[in-house]
Specification:
Helix content is about 45%, strand content about 20%. The chain has about 350 residues and is of the alpha/beta class. The strands form three sheets. A six-stranded parallel sheet has the order 2-1-3-4-6-7, sandwiched between helices. Helix 1 packs across helix 14 (about 335-345), helix 6 (about 135-155) crosses helix 9 (about 220-230) and helix 10 crosses helix 13. The chain has two domains: about 5-125, Rossmann fold, CATH 3.40.50; about 135-330, Rossmann fold (3-Layer(aba) Sandwich). The protein is globular.
Protein backbone atom coordinates (compact mmCIF):
# COMPACT_ATOMS: atom_id res chain seq x y z
CA UNK A 1 0.00 0.00 0.00
CA UNK A 2 1.48 3.31 -1.15
CA UNK A 3 0.47 6.78 0.01
CA UNK A 4 0.09 9.09 -2.98
CA UNK A 5 -0.47 12.84 -3.06
CA UNK A 6 -2.25 14.37 -6.06
CA UNK A 7 -1.49 18.07 -6.24
CA UNK A 8 -3.65 20.19 -8.55
CA UNK A 9 -5.42 23.57 -8.80
CA UNK A 10 -8.89 24.91 -8.06
CA UNK A 11 -10.35 24.90 -11.59
CA UNK A 12 -13.35 22.60 -12.10
CA UNK A 13 -11.70 20.63 -14.90
CA UNK A 14 -8.48 20.12 -12.92
CA UNK A 15 -10.48 18.89 -9.96
CA UNK A 16 -12.47 16.37 -11.99
CA UNK A 17 -9.44 14.87 -13.73
CA UNK A 18 -7.58 14.67 -10.41
CA UNK A 19 -10.58 13.02 -8.75
CA UNK A 20 -10.54 10.33 -11.42
CA UNK A 21 -6.79 9.82 -11.06
CA UNK A 22 -7.34 9.41 -7.31
CA UNK A 23 -10.17 6.93 -7.93
CA UNK A 24 -7.91 4.78 -10.09
CA UNK A 25 -5.20 4.86 -7.43
CA UNK A 26 -7.62 3.85 -4.70
CA UNK A 27 -8.87 0.95 -6.82
CA UNK A 28 -5.25 -0.20 -7.00
CA UNK A 29 -5.16 -0.28 -3.21
CA UNK A 30 -3.24 2.96 -2.63
CA UNK A 31 -4.09 5.66 -0.11
CA UNK A 32 -4.58 8.85 -2.10
CA UNK A 33 -4.61 12.43 -0.82
CA UNK A 34 -5.97 15.19 -3.08
CA UNK A 35 -4.72 18.74 -2.46
CA UNK A 36 -6.16 21.67 -4.47
CA UNK A 37 -4.54 24.42 -2.40
CA UNK A 38 -1.18 26.12 -2.98
CA UNK A 39 1.44 23.39 -3.44
CA UNK A 40 3.68 22.80 -0.45
CA UNK A 41 5.70 19.62 -0.54
CA UNK A 42 6.97 20.20 3.00
CA UNK A 43 3.40 19.85 4.32
CA UNK A 44 3.07 16.34 2.88
CA UNK A 45 6.62 14.99 2.82
CA UNK A 46 6.16 12.91 5.98
CA UNK A 47 2.90 11.25 4.92
CA UNK A 48 3.41 10.52 1.19
CA UNK A 49 5.50 8.03 -0.74
CA UNK A 50 4.79 9.47 -4.20
CA UNK A 51 3.31 12.59 -5.81
CA UNK A 52 1.37 13.30 -9.01
CA UNK A 53 1.27 16.96 -9.99
CA UNK A 54 -1.46 17.90 -12.48
CA UNK A 55 -1.47 21.51 -13.59
CA UNK A 56 -1.43 23.51 -16.86
CA UNK A 57 2.06 24.44 -18.00
CA UNK A 58 1.38 28.17 -18.03
CA UNK A 59 4.75 29.68 -17.01
CA UNK A 60 3.43 32.53 -14.86
CA UNK A 61 1.11 30.17 -12.96
CA UNK A 62 2.96 26.89 -12.61
CA UNK A 63 6.48 27.70 -11.40
CA UNK A 64 5.62 26.79 -7.78
CA UNK A 65 4.15 23.48 -8.95
CA UNK A 66 7.22 22.65 -11.03
CA UNK A 67 9.57 23.54 -8.19
CA UNK A 68 7.65 21.37 -5.73
CA UNK A 69 7.55 18.52 -8.27
CA UNK A 70 11.32 18.75 -8.71
CA UNK A 71 11.98 18.76 -4.95
CA UNK A 72 9.65 15.80 -4.42
CA UNK A 73 11.25 13.86 -7.26
CA UNK A 74 14.70 14.27 -5.73
CA UNK A 75 13.59 13.36 -2.21
CA UNK A 76 11.42 10.39 -3.24
CA UNK A 77 13.88 8.76 -5.59
CA UNK A 78 11.98 9.69 -8.73
CA UNK A 79 8.49 8.98 -7.40
CA UNK A 80 7.12 12.34 -8.54
CA UNK A 81 5.61 13.10 -11.95
CA UNK A 82 4.18 16.19 -13.62
CA UNK A 83 1.08 15.59 -15.75
CA UNK A 84 0.09 18.63 -17.76
CA UNK A 85 -1.97 20.37 -20.43
CA UNK A 86 -1.55 23.55 -22.48
CA UNK A 87 -3.52 25.38 -25.19
CA UNK A 88 -0.53 26.94 -26.90
CA UNK A 89 3.25 27.26 -26.86
CA UNK A 90 4.93 28.40 -23.61
CA UNK A 91 7.34 31.25 -24.26
CA UNK A 92 10.95 30.15 -23.92
CA UNK A 93 12.19 33.36 -22.32
CA UNK A 94 9.93 32.93 -19.27
CA UNK A 95 10.94 29.30 -18.66
CA UNK A 96 13.93 28.86 -16.37
CA UNK A 97 16.76 26.88 -18.07
CA UNK A 98 16.82 24.33 -15.25
CA UNK A 99 13.22 23.40 -16.07
CA UNK A 100 14.16 22.56 -19.66
CA UNK A 101 17.30 20.72 -18.56
CA UNK A 102 16.11 18.73 -15.54
CA UNK A 103 12.33 18.29 -15.72
CA UNK A 104 10.16 15.86 -17.67
CA UNK A 105 6.46 16.20 -18.38
CA UNK A 106 3.62 13.85 -19.25
CA UNK A 107 1.26 15.48 -21.77
CA UNK A 108 -2.49 14.91 -22.00
CA UNK A 109 -2.56 15.01 -25.83
CA UNK A 110 -0.29 14.95 -28.85
CA UNK A 111 -1.05 18.63 -29.29
CA UNK A 112 0.09 19.42 -25.74
CA UNK A 113 3.25 17.39 -26.34
CA UNK A 114 3.95 19.33 -29.55
CA UNK A 115 3.52 22.65 -27.73
CA UNK A 116 5.86 21.63 -24.91
CA UNK A 117 8.56 20.38 -27.27
CA UNK A 118 8.25 23.59 -29.28
CA UNK A 119 9.27 25.41 -26.09
CA UNK A 120 12.24 23.09 -25.57
CA UNK A 121 10.64 21.06 -22.79
CA UNK A 122 11.06 17.31 -22.37
CA UNK A 123 7.99 15.12 -22.85
CA UNK A 124 8.18 11.70 -21.25
CA UNK A 125 4.88 10.33 -22.57
CA UNK A 126 1.32 11.15 -23.62
CA UNK A 127 -1.54 10.00 -21.38
CA UNK A 128 -4.99 11.03 -22.57
CA UNK A 129 -7.78 12.02 -20.22
CA UNK A 130 -10.60 9.55 -19.91
CA UNK A 131 -14.07 8.68 -18.68
CA UNK A 132 -14.81 6.62 -15.58
CA UNK A 133 -17.21 4.06 -16.99
CA UNK A 134 -17.68 2.69 -13.47
CA UNK A 135 -19.62 5.86 -12.70
CA UNK A 136 -21.38 6.56 -15.97
CA UNK A 137 -24.54 4.69 -14.92
CA UNK A 138 -25.17 7.48 -12.39
CA UNK A 139 -25.32 9.93 -15.27
CA UNK A 140 -27.51 7.67 -17.41
CA UNK A 141 -30.04 7.46 -14.57
CA UNK A 142 -30.65 11.20 -14.91
CA UNK A 143 -31.08 11.32 -18.69
CA UNK A 144 -34.77 10.37 -18.95
CA UNK A 145 -35.80 12.88 -16.29
CA UNK A 146 -33.78 15.66 -17.91
CA UNK A 147 -35.17 14.82 -21.36
CA UNK A 148 -38.73 15.00 -20.06
CA UNK A 149 -38.01 18.45 -18.64
CA UNK A 150 -36.54 19.64 -21.94
CA UNK A 151 -39.52 18.28 -23.84
CA UNK A 152 -41.94 19.87 -21.38
CA UNK A 153 -40.48 23.35 -21.86
CA UNK A 154 -39.34 23.08 -25.48
CA UNK A 155 -41.72 20.60 -27.09
CA UNK A 156 -40.76 19.50 -30.59
CA UNK A 157 -37.50 21.44 -30.67
CA UNK A 158 -34.01 20.05 -31.15
CA UNK A 159 -31.89 20.70 -28.05
CA UNK A 160 -28.26 21.78 -28.27
CA UNK A 161 -26.29 21.65 -25.03
CA UNK A 162 -23.31 23.91 -24.35
CA UNK A 163 -20.95 23.86 -21.36
CA UNK A 164 -18.66 26.88 -21.64
CA UNK A 165 -17.13 29.71 -19.65
CA UNK A 166 -16.57 33.29 -20.77
CA UNK A 167 -12.88 32.99 -21.65
CA UNK A 168 -12.38 34.38 -25.20
CA UNK A 169 -10.56 31.18 -26.18
CA UNK A 170 -13.77 29.20 -25.67
CA UNK A 171 -15.66 30.85 -28.54
CA UNK A 172 -18.81 32.08 -26.80
CA UNK A 173 -19.00 35.20 -28.98
CA UNK A 174 -18.84 33.12 -32.17
CA UNK A 175 -21.52 30.81 -30.82
CA UNK A 176 -23.81 33.77 -30.13
CA UNK A 177 -23.24 35.06 -33.65
CA UNK A 178 -24.06 31.63 -35.09
CA UNK A 179 -27.26 31.36 -33.03
CA UNK A 180 -28.38 34.78 -34.22
CA UNK A 181 -27.77 33.80 -37.84
CA UNK A 182 -29.63 30.49 -37.49
CA UNK A 183 -32.53 32.14 -35.65
CA UNK A 184 -33.15 34.34 -38.69
CA UNK A 185 -34.02 31.20 -40.68
CA UNK A 186 -35.63 28.79 -38.22
CA UNK A 187 -36.88 28.53 -34.66
CA UNK A 188 -37.22 24.77 -34.18
CA UNK A 189 -34.25 24.54 -31.81
CA UNK A 190 -33.05 25.62 -28.38
CA UNK A 191 -29.56 26.15 -26.99
CA UNK A 192 -29.28 25.14 -23.33
CA UNK A 193 -26.33 26.84 -21.71
CA UNK A 194 -24.28 25.95 -18.65
CA UNK A 195 -21.97 28.89 -18.13
CA UNK A 196 -20.85 31.59 -15.70
CA UNK A 197 -23.42 33.93 -14.19
CA UNK A 198 -21.74 36.99 -15.70
CA UNK A 199 -22.52 35.69 -19.19
CA UNK A 200 -26.22 36.36 -18.65
CA UNK A 201 -25.93 39.92 -19.95
CA UNK A 202 -24.39 38.67 -23.18
CA UNK A 203 -27.15 36.15 -23.89
CA UNK A 204 -30.29 37.85 -22.55
CA UNK A 205 -31.28 39.15 -26.00
CA UNK A 206 -30.11 36.13 -27.98
CA UNK A 207 -33.11 34.16 -29.32
CA UNK A 208 -33.62 30.47 -28.49
CA UNK A 209 -30.98 30.47 -25.72
CA UNK A 210 -31.75 29.39 -22.15
CA UNK A 211 -29.53 29.50 -19.09
CA UNK A 212 -29.61 26.10 -17.33
CA UNK A 213 -27.05 26.30 -14.53
CA UNK A 214 -23.98 28.17 -13.41
CA UNK A 215 -20.63 26.77 -14.46
CA UNK A 216 -19.19 24.65 -11.64
CA UNK A 217 -22.42 24.57 -9.60
CA UNK A 218 -23.57 21.04 -10.52
CA UNK A 219 -22.10 17.63 -9.81
CA UNK A 220 -20.19 15.86 -12.54
CA UNK A 221 -22.84 13.18 -13.04
CA UNK A 222 -25.48 15.92 -13.37
CA UNK A 223 -23.44 17.59 -16.12
CA UNK A 224 -22.99 14.25 -17.87
CA UNK A 225 -26.72 13.57 -17.55
CA UNK A 226 -27.44 16.97 -19.08
CA UNK A 227 -25.19 16.12 -22.02
CA UNK A 228 -26.95 12.81 -22.48
CA UNK A 229 -30.37 14.48 -22.45
CA UNK A 230 -29.51 16.91 -25.26
CA UNK A 231 -29.73 15.96 -28.92
CA UNK A 232 -26.35 17.54 -29.63
CA UNK A 233 -23.50 19.18 -27.76
CA UNK A 234 -21.85 22.26 -29.27
CA UNK A 235 -18.17 22.75 -28.47
CA UNK A 236 -17.49 26.28 -29.77
CA UNK A 237 -13.91 26.63 -28.49
CA UNK A 238 -11.00 28.03 -30.47
CA UNK A 239 -8.24 26.66 -28.22
CA UNK A 240 -7.97 23.39 -26.30
CA UNK A 241 -5.34 21.26 -24.62
CA UNK A 242 -7.60 18.19 -24.65
CA UNK A 243 -11.36 19.02 -24.48
CA UNK A 244 -12.95 16.77 -21.88
CA UNK A 245 -16.57 17.86 -22.63
CA UNK A 246 -16.20 16.47 -26.16
CA UNK A 247 -15.20 13.07 -24.81
CA UNK A 248 -17.83 13.09 -22.05
CA UNK A 249 -20.63 13.94 -24.46
CA UNK A 250 -19.52 11.13 -26.76
CA UNK A 251 -19.50 8.73 -23.82
CA UNK A 252 -23.15 9.66 -23.18
CA UNK A 253 -24.00 8.94 -26.82
CA UNK A 254 -24.58 12.58 -27.74
CA UNK A 255 -22.90 13.71 -30.98
CA UNK A 256 -20.89 16.93 -30.93
CA UNK A 257 -20.49 19.89 -33.27
CA UNK A 258 -16.93 21.19 -32.98
CA UNK A 259 -14.03 22.77 -34.83
CA UNK A 260 -11.82 20.58 -36.99
CA UNK A 261 -8.53 21.13 -35.14
CA UNK A 262 -6.11 19.39 -32.78
CA UNK A 263 -6.35 18.09 -30.12
CA UNK A 264 -10.07 17.56 -30.77
CA UNK A 265 -9.17 15.50 -33.83
CA UNK A 266 -7.31 13.09 -31.54
CA UNK A 267 -10.58 12.31 -29.74
CA UNK A 268 -13.44 12.72 -32.19
CA UNK A 269 -15.21 10.35 -34.55
CA UNK A 270 -15.43 12.09 -37.91
CA UNK A 271 -18.57 10.24 -38.97
CA UNK A 272 -20.30 10.44 -35.60
CA UNK A 273 -19.75 14.15 -34.99
CA UNK A 274 -20.14 17.22 -37.19
CA UNK A 275 -16.90 19.11 -37.79
CA UNK A 276 -16.67 22.84 -38.53
CA UNK A 277 -13.93 23.79 -41.03
CA UNK A 278 -11.17 26.03 -39.69
CA UNK A 279 -10.41 29.11 -41.78
CA UNK A 280 -7.06 29.93 -40.15
CA UNK A 281 -4.89 29.15 -37.14
CA UNK A 282 -2.50 31.54 -35.44
CA UNK A 283 -0.49 31.92 -32.25
CA UNK A 284 -1.73 34.79 -30.10
CA UNK A 285 0.56 36.14 -27.38
CA UNK A 286 -0.74 36.64 -23.86
CA UNK A 287 0.50 38.09 -20.58
CA UNK A 288 0.70 34.70 -18.87
CA UNK A 289 3.69 33.41 -20.84
CA UNK A 290 1.82 31.42 -23.50
CA UNK A 291 1.28 32.00 -27.20
CA UNK A 292 -2.18 30.44 -27.50
CA UNK A 293 -3.03 28.54 -30.68
CA UNK A 294 -6.34 29.97 -31.91
CA UNK A 295 -8.29 28.03 -34.53
CA UNK A 296 -10.74 30.43 -36.15
CA UNK A 297 -13.93 29.43 -37.95
CA UNK A 298 -16.72 31.33 -39.68
CA UNK A 299 -19.76 31.49 -37.36
CA UNK A 300 -21.90 31.04 -40.46
CA UNK A 301 -20.34 27.57 -40.82
CA UNK A 302 -21.34 26.79 -37.25
CA UNK A 303 -24.89 27.98 -37.97
CA UNK A 304 -24.99 25.75 -41.05
CA UNK A 305 -23.71 22.79 -39.01
CA UNK A 306 -26.44 23.38 -36.42
CA UNK A 307 -29.10 23.53 -39.14
CA UNK A 308 -27.80 20.27 -40.61
CA UNK A 309 -27.88 18.70 -37.15
CA UNK A 310 -31.53 19.71 -36.70
CA UNK A 311 -32.44 18.12 -40.03
CA UNK A 312 -30.64 14.90 -39.14
CA UNK A 313 -32.62 14.52 -35.90
CA UNK A 314 -35.96 15.36 -37.55
CA UNK A 315 -35.59 13.68 -40.92
CA UNK A 316 -33.02 10.88 -40.66
CA UNK A 317 -33.38 9.02 -37.38
CA UNK A 318 -31.40 6.02 -38.63
CA UNK A 319 -28.38 8.19 -39.35
CA UNK A 320 -28.73 10.02 -36.05
CA UNK A 321 -28.92 6.79 -34.06
CA UNK A 322 -25.89 5.47 -35.94
CA UNK A 323 -23.97 8.63 -35.03
CA UNK A 324 -24.92 8.16 -31.38
CA UNK A 325 -23.60 4.61 -31.40
CA UNK A 326 -20.40 5.59 -33.21
CA UNK A 327 -19.43 8.29 -30.73
CA UNK A 328 -20.27 6.09 -27.76
CA UNK A 329 -18.09 3.31 -29.14
CA UNK A 330 -15.19 5.69 -29.80
CA UNK A 331 -15.37 7.05 -26.26
CA UNK A 332 -14.89 3.52 -24.86
CA UNK A 333 -11.27 3.75 -26.01
CA UNK A 334 -10.71 6.45 -23.40
CA UNK A 335 -11.19 4.42 -20.23
CA UNK A 336 -9.79 6.32 -17.24
CA UNK A 337 -8.87 3.14 -15.40
CA UNK A 338 -6.59 2.01 -18.22
CA UNK A 339 -5.22 5.46 -19.06
CA UNK A 340 -4.48 6.77 -15.57
CA UNK A 341 -2.93 3.46 -14.55
CA UNK A 342 0.05 4.56 -16.65
CA UNK A 343 0.61 7.50 -14.31
CA UNK A 344 1.01 5.12 -11.39
CA UNK A 345 3.38 2.96 -13.44
CA UNK A 346 5.59 6.01 -13.93
CA UNK A 347 5.68 6.37 -10.16
CA UNK A 348 6.95 2.81 -10.02
CA UNK A 349 4.02 1.59 -7.95
Amino acid sequence: MVKVLIQTGKAVSLGEVSRQIAYVGEKKGHIVYLNRQTPSWISYRDVCDAVIFFYPLIPTWCINYIYEYYKARNELGGKSIFYTTIEGVPKRHVIWPWIRERCEFIANSKFTAWCLRKAGLKVKDIVYHGVLFDEIDLAYEKVDSYRKTIEEYHKGKVAFGVVVDDNPRKGLSLLIEAINKLSEKRSDFVVLLITKQNVMEKIENVPNVYFVAEFGSRSHDEIMGFMGACDWLIQPSLCEGFCLPLLESMAMGTPVIHGNFPPLMEITDKKGNILIPISRASLVNSDDGVAYMYHYYDPLKLAEAMSRAIDIVKEDSDRYNDMRERVKEKARKFDSKKLYSKLYKYLGI
